[in-house]
TrEMBL record:
Keyword Ion transport: yes
Mode of membrane association: Multi-pass membrane protein
Transmembrane spans: 30-48, 60-81, 126-153, 174-197, 227-250, 262-283, 331-353, 392-419, 457-482
GO molecular-function term, one example from the UniProt record: metal ion binding
Similarity remark: Belongs to the TrkH potassium transport family.
Designated name of the protein: Trk system potassium uptake protein TrkH
UniProt binding sites for K(+): T101, T102, G210, T317, T318, N434, V435
Lineage: Bacteria, Pseudomonadati, Bacteroidota, Flavobacteriia, Flavobacteriales
Length: 485
């Protein structure tokens, strides 16, 4: 955790450098936040230098959860010190939303913020996205979290009950892919017409499936430049897919991608739901046609682009918006609410339940019909052509039940604070799934600033629980976790 704080402080120095380049007045504040964070991190490392470095299951849960909290509370400092977000509750919410790549914001006017603060805001997304890749590949499978051990068998990562040297190699390769995608998107967005500052910020928010934008209108600001939105769609799709598949693609092992069951279903979801939304938008909703080459980008193209953009954004839990999709039709409002529960692929930076778990739950449910007729038959669930152990199936079902239960409890708690029904269920689903925009008073072109302070802390907890696959956080709240064995 001391090392995490030290790294966090180094990233703050990068934000301070950007602040200095733009002379936005926040350089000293961000630098001071970096120094404080690095000092705390170095001190923690110094005073614990003699301790064993052995990491068992219990330590794994603690490191993951408290490490994220350490990042969040230290990441608040640039906001507080600069005065950009002086309120502690709001600073906590914005920072937790950043590291968990949720993308929900309390900022009423983003465009007046200093460039250094906006860059730090996007950087929290990027750091959180990197961390999620390592969690999915290296740590969660070892802890048996939510069926992620199934993903471990499919990835070129660890196998066994203790940390494996291959974890480091795998993490490095995936970080390089993550960095490469970020650079590639930045260049493409710059060539498409964005300025460099907006391009790099939106690239960091896209690859982390975060959704923080430098504009109050989010990506709707570029509705007259379709190419920018198509580039973001492409990288949202890549960020929501398994990063291990990107590794296979770079190695020339395309067959692994084509045969991957989760990737096929993930792609099918995006295409199928985009077509449905496009048809409804074209015939029922009014989406403005861009003035940029209207003979090419007409009503049909506009409907297709907005549907593809919003479906990809919600499924991958990125949270960028090209329009207020809650105003399109009542059908599409409910439609997009349902998409919040899908999530991207395992091993991606996306939040939500994940496509892999949906596949397993559906397959197991269909097999129950056959098991009812043939109670003595051995009918295992198969994934990518291989039998899946029963304990993994039970783990996934348990995760799903717990996820839905926490969603209901989350909405009930918000309702108890006097928040209306639509806003409460939207805020709970969005925060737990790390989506960002929600419904009711939290509609896509609004923000979360109007929530009571208690509501912001509660949603911060839901963001953390959802981002860390539920069990990692919730197990710390059980009394038997802390008992000596």
């Amino acid at each position: 955790m001391g090392l995490l704080m030290l790294c966090n402080g180094c990233f703050m120095l990068i934000a301070a450098f950007v602040s200095g380049l733009y002379a936005d007045g926040a350089t000293l504040s961000i630098s001071l936040a970096a120094i404080v964070t690095m000092f705390v991190g170095i001190s923690a490392m110094f005073f614990t230098r003699g301790h064993k470095k052995e990491v068992k299951r219990k330590e794994g849960y603690i490191i993951v959860t408290f490490g994220w909290l350490a990042l969040t509370f230290s990441g608040m400092l640039p906001y507080v010190f600069s005065g950009a977000v002086p309120d502690i509750t709001n600073a906590f919410f914005e920072t937790m939303s950043g590291y968990t790549t949720t993308g929900a914001s309390i900022m009423d006017d983003i465009e007046v913020m200093p460039e250094g603060i906006l860059f730090w805001r996007s950087l929290t997304h990027w750091i959180g996205g990197m961390g999620i890749i390592v969690l999915a590949i290296a740590i969660l499978p070892l802890l048996g979290i939510g069926g992620m051990q199934l993903f471990a068998a499919e990835s070129p990562g660890p196998s066994g009950d203790k940390l494996h040297p291959r974890i480091t190699d795998t993490a490095k390769r995936l970080w390089l892919i993550y960095l490469g995608y970020t650079i590639a998107e930045t260049i493409l967005l710059k060539l498409a017409g964005m300025n460099f500052f907006d391009a790099i910020n939106h690239s960091m928010a896209t690859l982390s499936t975060g959704g923080f934008s430098t504009k109050n209108l989010s990506v709707a600001y570029w509705n007259d430049q379709p190419l920018i939105q198509y580039i973001i769609i492409l990288f949202m799709f890549l960020a929501g897919s398994n990063f291990v598949l990107s590794y296979f693609a770079l190695k020339g092992r395309v067959q692994r991608i084509i045969m991957d069951e989760e990737f096929k279903v993930y792609t099918l979801f995006v295409v199928f739901f985009s077509v449905i939304a496009a048809l409804v938008i074209y015939f029922k909703a009014n989406v403005p046609v861009t003035e940029y080459h209207p003979q090419v980008f007409g009503a049909a193209e506009s409907a297709f682009r907005h549907s593809l953009f919003q479906v990809t954004s919600v499924i991958t839990t990125t949270g960028f918006v090209s329009a207020d999709y809650t105003s399109w039709t009542p059908f599409l409002t409910i439609f997009f609410f349902g998409l919040m529960f899908l999530g991207g692929s395992a091993g991606s930076t996306a939040g939500g339940i994940k496509v892999m778990r949906h596949i397993m739950i559906i397959k197991n449910g269909l097999l129950e019909f056959r098991r009812t007729i043939h109670p003595n038959a051995m009918l295992p669930v198969r994934y990518n052509g291989k039998s899946v152990k029963e304990n993994i199936v039970y783990n996934i079902i348990g995760f799903f039940v717990l996820y839905m239960l926490l969603f209901i409890i989350g909405a009930l708690v918000l309702g108890a604070m006097g928040i209306d029904f639509v806003t409460a269920i939207g805020g709970s689903a969005s925060s737990l799934g790390n989506v960002g925009p929600a419904f009711g008073n939290l509609y896509p072109l609004s923000n979360f600033n109007g929530l009571p302070d208690a509501g912001k802390w509660w949603l911060g907890f839901l963001m953390l629980a959802g981002r860390l696959e539920l069990f990692t956080v919730l197990i710390l709240l059980t009394p038997y976790f802390w008992k000596r064995t």
